[in-house]
Amino acid sequence: MQIYNTMTRVKEEFVPIEPGKVRMYVCGPTVYDYIHIGNARPMIFFDTVRRYLEYKGYDVNYVSNFTDVDDKIIKRALQEGVDASVISERFIAECKKDMEAMGVRPATIHPKATEEIGGMIDMIADLIEKGFAYEVNGTVYYRVRTFSRYGSLSGKNLDDLRSGSRSLLVTGEEEKEDPMDFVLWKPKKEGEPSWESPWGQGRPGWHIECSVMSRRYLGEEIDIHGGGEDLIFPHHENEIAQSEAESGHIFTHYWMHNAFLNIDNKKMSKSLNNFFTVREISERYDLTVLRLFMLSAHYRSPLNFSAELMESAKSSLERIRTAVERLEDARGRGRKRPLSATARKAADAFTRKFEAAMEDDFNTADALAALFELVRYTNQLVPKNRSEEELEYLRGKLADMTGILGLRPAEKADLDAQIEALIEERTQARKAKNWARADEIRSYLASQGILLEDTKEGVKWKRA
Ligand code: AMP
Ligand code: ZN
Description:
Layout: E1 2-5, E2 10-13, E3 21-26, H1 37-55, E4 59-64, H2 71-80, H3 84-101, H4 117-129, E5 133-136, E6 139-142, H5 158-166, E7 182-187, E8 202-204, H6 206-218, E9 222-228, H7 232-247, E10 252-258, E11 261-263, E12 266-267, H8 278-284, H9 287-295, E13 303-304, H10 307-329, H11 341-359, H12 364-381, H13 388-405, H14 412-431, H15 435-447, E14 450-455, E15 458-463
Parallel strand pairs: 3-4, 3-9, 9-10, 11-13
Antiparallel strand pairs: 1-2, 5-6, 6-7, 7-8, 11-12, 14-15
Helix pairs in contact: 1-13, 2-3, 4-6, 6-7, 9-10, 10-12, 11-12, 11-13, 12-13, 14-15
Bound molecules: adenosine monophosphate and zinc ion.
Adenosine monophosphate binds next to helix 1 and strand 9.
C-alpha cells in the first residue's frame, strides 16, 4: 500500500511500526459552533482510511481530539454569559450527531484538551528542563532555534520565516527570544478558564495539546498523523518540534493532509463566511450523499462544492442503492447452482480494481469507479436468474465496497421519504397535465414494487 507522505513529498510503501497494528491520530475540530462541510472533509476521508485499513486486517487505534479550550470558544461563552465548557460540550454533542449522520465512526478515543492539562504541564516542564523552552512573565515559549529540523514538514526556511514574521509580532510578544518562538503556555486573562501550573494560572497553547494526547493514547511514535493541509504550518511543524525534541526520535512516520473543500474556488471557512454547516446540508440531503461527493475526488485535490456535484452524487448513490436492493429482492430466487470459476473471476476483477485504487494513496475516485462497474454488472446479471451463490457473492462484494467507503444502505425512513416525494411530484405533474411525467413516475415506482392507489383522500401507496 502506497501513502503520500507530506514529509518526504513522495508516495511510500506503508510499513506499520508494529505488524498488524496502526496507530493513527487525526486533528479534530475546535468546538465553538456547528462544523462546516470543510471540516467534514478530513472526518470523512480519514474515516475511510481507517475503514480500509481495518478491511485489510489491521487493528487500528484511531485517536481524534476535540479542541475545547480556545479563544473562539471563550469569546462565544462571554457573549452568551455561560461557562466555556457549556459551549464546548454543546458543540461536541452536535458534532457527534453530524459525524454519525455522515457515517463517520466514533474514534477509538476522542480526548478533550481540557481533560489532558496535567500531561501538557508535564511535557512543557520537560521541554524547559531540556532547554527547548523558556518562561517569561508567566508565558512559556518553545525555543525554535534549538530544533534543527524546524521547517522540514512545511519546507520552510527559518530565516525566511523570521524576516517575514518580524513585522507581524503581536504586542506583548517582544519578550520572545526569537520571533518564530511559539507559545506552549499562556497566563490567565480575566474571565478565561485557567489551570494551576508551575508558571502560574493559565492555559495551554494549541499545538502542545496534540503532542500530548497523541503520546498518551498512541505512544511516542505513531504511524499516521492526519488533518487538513492548513495544519501543516504551523500546527504540525510545531507538534514535530515539541514531540521529537522531547522523545529524541521520530514522532510520525506518515504525514497525510487533505486539500481544501472550496466554494467558488476559495477555501470554505468560518472567517470568510462562505460556508455551509453539515446541519444545513442535512436539511436537503441524506448525508451519505455528502460523503459520496467528498470521496468523488482524490483527497489531495481541491474539491469545489456545488449544487450540480451534489445532485450528481445523489443520483450516483441512488444507483448504488438500487443495485443493492435488486440483489436483495432476488434473494432466494436464484438457481440452486454453485458459483462457477468464471463467475467468481469476473466478480473478483472488480475487487482487484477497487483495492488497487485504494492502495494507491487512497484514490477514492477510482475506487468509486470500480464500485460503479460492479453496480452495472450486477444490474445486468440480476434479471438473468443466475445462481443463488453467485448473487450472494456479489452481495458480499457490494457490502465490502460500500462498507469501506461508508456508503450505508438507505434507511427505511429515507426510502419512504423518497417515495413520498415522487408521489408528490406525480400529483403536481397531473395538475400541470404533464401526463408523460406522471406515468413515468407511476411505472418507475411499480418497477420498485410500489403500488399507487388514487383515492378521494389523495394518493395511497403500498409495497407489493
Ligand atoms: P479547525 O476546527 O478549523 O481546526 O478544523 C478542523 C479540521 O478541518 C482541520 O483538519 C482542518 O484542516 C480542516 N478544515 C477546515 N476547513 C477546511 C476546508 N475548507 N477544507 C478541508 N479541510 C478543512
Ligand atoms: Zn492537532
